Amino acid sequence: MSRIKFISILTILLIALTACVPRLKISSVLPDVVQVASTTDDPSAPQNVVEDKHFIQTDDFFVSEIPLTDQESIYVNTAKMITAPKAETSNRGEFKLSRNENIIWTEHYRKTRIAKKEDLKVGREVIFFRTVDDNGHFRAPQNTEEAHNGDWLLSKIEDTSSLSQGVVTVSGGFTVNSNNIRVKN
To answer: What is the pLDDT of residue 35?
Structure first.
């Protein structure tokens, strides 16, 4: 092989290997999501699932068997919808819980997203992960295992006076980091 041919091949190889370097410089402005390939053969299922910073996927719901009424908070679980609610099922959907794969039928389900600052208002129903950080505030899940097997609570915001420090107070006096709050879509 001639020296010129060798240098040409080496140059092409180096260009191909470094083609992704500019993306590294702009990754801080790209959305913080992960694409997960679908593993189902069901054609009605989403083909791409996106996971957010709380490790909650676009096809995840938060479900409970009771509504939040006059309680300070209630436990909710992550789940996948199996059967959509309809009149024949008294508007109840069938859900498979993430933590133990139990099946429940419920009318108390929510599709959520991570809260934005403008969502954090007194009286707003919010869902947050129930694990305390070193400062005594509830923190966001740190991995998929925590997010899908840990406890989540549904509550209402009572006080936003510490929002500038990144904390809100919910019913019961619990303090929650603002980056650990989800709201209904």
So the answer is: 42
CA distance 105 to 87: 13
Neighbours of 86 (CB within 10 A): 10
CA–CA distance, 28 with 36 (Å, rounded to integer): 20
**Distance of CA 40 to CAs 12, 52, 110, 118, 144, Å?**
39, 20, 23, 37, 19
Q: What is the pLDDT confidence band of residue 24, given thresholds at 50, 70 and 90?
A: very low
Residue spans per domain, the chain = 35-184
Question: What is the greatest pairwise CA distance in the chain?
Answer: 82
Residue with the two structure tokens 């199996």: 82
Say which DSSP state 45 is in: S
Based on C-alpha coordinates, what's the Rg of the chain?
A: 22
Nearby residues of 37 by Cβ (< 8 Å), 6 or more positions away: 48, 49
The residue with tokens 């993306």 is: 23
Contacts of 91 (CB under 8 A, 6+ apart): 85, 107
% of the chain exceeding 90 in pLDDT: 74
Provide the 8-state DSSP code for 69.
Answer: S
Would you state the structure tokens that stand for residue 150, as one six-digit string?
């840990």
